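Continuing from yesterday's entry. The apo prediction looked reasonable, so today I'm repeating it with flavin-adenine dinucleotide included to see how the binding region is handled. Same sequence as before; SMILES copied from the compound registry.
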Amino acid sequence: MPVELEAFRLQTREWLAENCPAGARGPGFIPWGSQKMPLEGDIALWLTRMAAKGWTVPTWPVAYGGGGLSREEYMVLQQEMRRIDARPALTGRGVNYIGPTILEFGTDQQKAKWLPRMARGEGGWCMGYSEPAAGSDLANLQMRCVDMGDQWRLNGMKIWTSDGVYGDWIFCLVRTAPDKPKHDGISLVLVNMDQPGVRVRPIQLINGNATFAETFFEDAVADKDDLIGPLNQGWGVGKRLLQYERSVHGGVNTSGAQVEQKIQSLADIAKHYTGVDHNAGAARLADSALRSRLLTLEMNSRAYALTQQRIIAETQTSAPSTATSILKVKGAEFTKERAEVLQQAMGSQGFGWEAGNAFSAAEIEANRDWLTTRAVSIYGGTSEIQRNIIAKRVIGLPD
Ligand SMILES: Cc1cc2nc3c(=O)[nH]c(=O)nc-3n(C[C@H](O)[C@H](O)[C@H](O)COP(=O)(O)OP(=O)(O)OC[C@H]3O[C@@H](n4cnc5c(N)ncnc54)[C@H](O)[C@@H]3O)c2cc1C
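Holo prediction written out below.
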């Protein structure tokens, strides 16, 4: 390792040891900028310190609130944070999706207006892409955006708005030229959710969470300056944003901060439920079927983690291109498999729903997590759609 990088590692280690408070280590809440969820204690302190250092968005330019780190330095920072089990100080669609998109397509004024505040976690962002008749066929979206001279006027609805209940801002793909072919009349615009023309109606998820929503726009307005990328060419900009999203789901995000935390060993949890085979010399899981499934998952996950590291190191731009679709599909499979293996290990104890004597908090969480993971192969574009992209754009098969 080059001497400068080794020096950077030591400085980083020292800084993290001094500045990462106990309450920002281990599993726990990671802020995503929502002003409707006030922060306190160690979580607030960690965000303030990391933002001042530019490490909420380590690879963004310093001028826009970033740390200006190289890809190699970013990886060192990740390793050092993992070493002490530090949580990222900030996550969400601001730093991870729309921020990098503005960095790539925004004007200098837009970058100066939006990026520093995103880096400080000032504003929780939602994603306004899907509509009732525009999911996989996203280009069919109908939400209208009309030029009113000094503002944009918006009418229509979005659906499946994650975190809609707590969102402050939403980036929307909208139709600005209804007479043009459907891919040509779309633009990407930033909208304040705290205005009379925006209404949010919660939808309860299967895991019991109700921060998900339908979002209605009834003569809502947006600033004239807040259209990102060229008018009517938002389809390309919006697709690029999806690559940033998929790079997060695929674990290769280098634009914001990759949320990567130590996870408890599945084998340790499983031993608690199924017991160990003492005759095997070293204590190993008694249930051989579970043991074999777990081992396969463990081996594949490690190989996948190495692939992620290699892709991060090799990627020249801030998000890998169509390769993100491969990682999105595989990442979703591992996430689902992990949740299923945990349920298999817990047996009937893995089906707890409500706190009480019968189930521990961890068991209830495992069940709700398992339900949550059903969605990972749907959001950000379904696995079937990713396979279509891989076939056409990666392998080059005909349409
Ligand atoms: C938990 C969760 C969070 C979400 N958060 C957001 C959000 O914050 N913002 C947002 O805008 N959207 C969000 N979504 C919506 C998500 O992007 C869509 O659900 C997804 O794109 C699929 O669209 P759809 O639900 O309309 O399904 P459809 O497009 O109707 O698809 C139904 C089925 O048909 C298959 N299919 C469709 N077309 C093809 C094809 N051409 N080839 C092969 N198979 C096909 C699909 O794979 C799927 O299995 C979220 C979804 C979930 C589940």
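Comparison notes:
- The mean pLDDT is 92.
- Residues 127-130, 135-136, 160-162, 375, 378-379, 381-382, 384-385, 388 surround flavin-adenine dinucleotide (CB under 6 Å).
Will overlay with the apo model tomorrow.
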